[in-house]
Amino acid sequence: MPERSDTSHGFGRVLVAVYAVFAIAAASRSIVQLVTEVESDTVVPYVLSAFAGIVYVVATYALARNHRQLALVTIGIELVGVITVGILSLVDTSLFPDQTVWSDFGQGYVFIPLVLPFVGLWWLRRTSAEGHA
Amino acid sequence: MNDPVAYGIAILALCVAVFAGWHTVRRREFGNPLFYAVCVLEIVLLGLLVGGSIALGQTSRDVDGVLFISYLVTMVVIPPAAVVWGIAEKSRWGTGVVVVAMLTTAVLSLRLLGIWKGAYA
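The joint structure predicted for all components is written out below.
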């Protein structure tokens, strides 16, 4: 358990590790898509992939460096993103012909993208409750 | 590159993940046995990098080469990164990082097989 109320220590280190994996996964998927696949008229999934990649990268950085406000904002965007895109991708499949991390609530990533923001918010709350100055 | 290789590596990574998870649950420190277990996996992954690169050069399959190689390299980089990061964390969660890394390696191994078979083309 955390000795310090720092978002990057204790369990936070595991959380940062998971975020780092998703940052790399989402960002590299986006780069591959942008380099090889953007030829269709539908740019939505590609823009979204790039956006998701950036969000994960910034969230990883924020958690690792204990920037709580930045972490809160990016994790919030992540939560809204995964739910919105999850609903939209189920309602209108034509909108997302290509996969993104957030499609179908992150089903392609065993729903970790859906669970991760909740864990992140819990962790931010927990570390601040332990007497963060 | 074939099914036994990919599944074998995934299973090996899962075994190390379980071993690391046992450390996490029992609050064991990051000890030599776990270090050696990760080393064994790393050696296998280096073999995969070499073998996979050779196989890519010889195959007539329509494999996305850049993606394939980037997966191989990523898989080689993950274990050492996890060890460095895990040892730096003095609480029980240091080995938790290794669990995450090993699960990631297992998933990447299966996706690598998919890339080899052109499943994501």
